[in-house]
Amino acid sequence: MMRMTVLASGSKGNSTLVASSRTRVLVDAGLSCRELMRRMAIAGEDPSALDAILITHEHLDHVAGLAVLARKLRIPVFFTEQTHRAWVRMLTPKTTMTYAKWLDHLQQEKEAKAAQATVQESGRSAEDLCEIPAVSLEDVQAEEDAPPAVKADPSALPAVEYFLAGTNFCIGDIDITPFTIPHDAADPCGFVFAAEGIRMAIATDLGYMPPNVKQAIAGSDVLLLESNHDLEMLRDGPYPWSVKQRVLSRVGHLSNHATAEFLSRDYDGGAAYIVLGHLSESNNAPELARISAEQAVGDRMRLLGNRILLAEQAQPLESIQL
Ligand SMILES: [Zn+2]
Ligand SMILES: [Zn+2]
């Protein structure tokens, strides 16, 4: 028996629980820890039974609650090394200054003033001098006096495990194959989970459907597939031009049209359930995504056994069990 529970799906947060009868993993933690716990409770899932968290990529809608949840449950987090690094960079403040550095900085400032005086004497403009960033004494003291909890590393995790796209690994009795997806993150991945003769795949956040993704998700019994936007709604919608370009790009998100094209042309048709996910709230309507996928499947009679479900942003989807 395997189970997939989509806790949330969309640009405001993603998280999906995948379980065999012995092992439970959470894919992404893109809501606050509190909200993830609340949704697991609603869906009848026990957070304390989770074995690990897997991360597809470092965008905030996939990692917002990650550190807090992992520390609370004391479970390992699986990333690619590049994704982990990108995530740590994201959480690390860009400028921090120790007391020693601050003393250095004071010295530099003194020297700069002396140099400026020399320059002014020689008639050159003070703007020729390089600018030294202004850091007040209060800033330094605030950090020095901060309680240990504030100073604590925000990216600290109970344990970090690295995987490589294209190389499968096991957590408990679930065999996991990560595959590369085309998306504008450090090293984004989708996953195929296999246990007890059942395969479940997650492929969201991808600009198009490359051959390696089609190949990876073939033979899935449950397929969580992106159907992000309706092309016309995106074009006429509220996003600024640059964001529209990003979404439409080869490293953006899959449109209803692209998903339908995959379903009607390349999909092998074996899934009991196709779950459409990562629907945009501004540039899509659930009914448009559903109709588009149903038409694509309807064009191929042998796919009619596939049930199409829509993952939601605001609430968990009922668990799919096979
Ligand atoms: Zn993303
Ligand atoms: Zn996303």
Would you mind describing this structure in some detail?
The chain is an alpha/beta fold. It has two domains: 250 residues, Ribonuclease Z/Hydroxyacylglutathione hydrolase-like (Metallo-beta-lactamase, Chain A, 4-Layer Sandwich), CATH 3.60.15; 53 residues, no CATH class. The protein is built from twelve helices and 14 strands. A seven-stranded mixed sheet has the order 6-5-4-3-2-1-14. The protein has a seven-stranded mixed sheet with strand order 7-8-9-10-11-12-13. Strand 3, helix 1 and strand 4 form a beta-alpha-beta unit. Helix 11 runs parallel beside helix 12. About 8% of the residues have low confidence. The structure holds zinc ion (2 copies).
Protein traits:
7-stranded mixed sheet; 12 helices; RibonucZ/Hydroxyglut_hydro; binds zinc ion; Metallo-B-lactamas; 322 residues; Phosphoribosyl 1,2-cyclic phosphodiesterase; globular; Metallo-beta-lactamase, Chain A; alpha/beta
Separate helix tally: 12
| Residues in β-strands, percent | 15-25%
Shape: globular
Strand order of the largest sheet: 6-5-4-3-2-1-14
Radius of gyration: 24 Å
Give me the strand/helix succession: EEEHEHHEHHHHEEEEEHEHHHEHEE
* SS content category: alpha/beta
Low-confidence stretches: 123-147
CATH architecture of the largest domain: 4-Layer Sandwich
Helical residue percent band: 25-40%
Number of domains: 2
Count all strands and give the number: 14
Organism: Granulicella aggregans
InterPro entries: Metallo-B-lactamas, RibonucZ/Hydroxyglut_hydro, WalJ/YycJ-like
Protein name: Phosphoribosyl 1,2-cyclic phosphodiesterase
Domain Metallo-beta-lactamase: 12-278
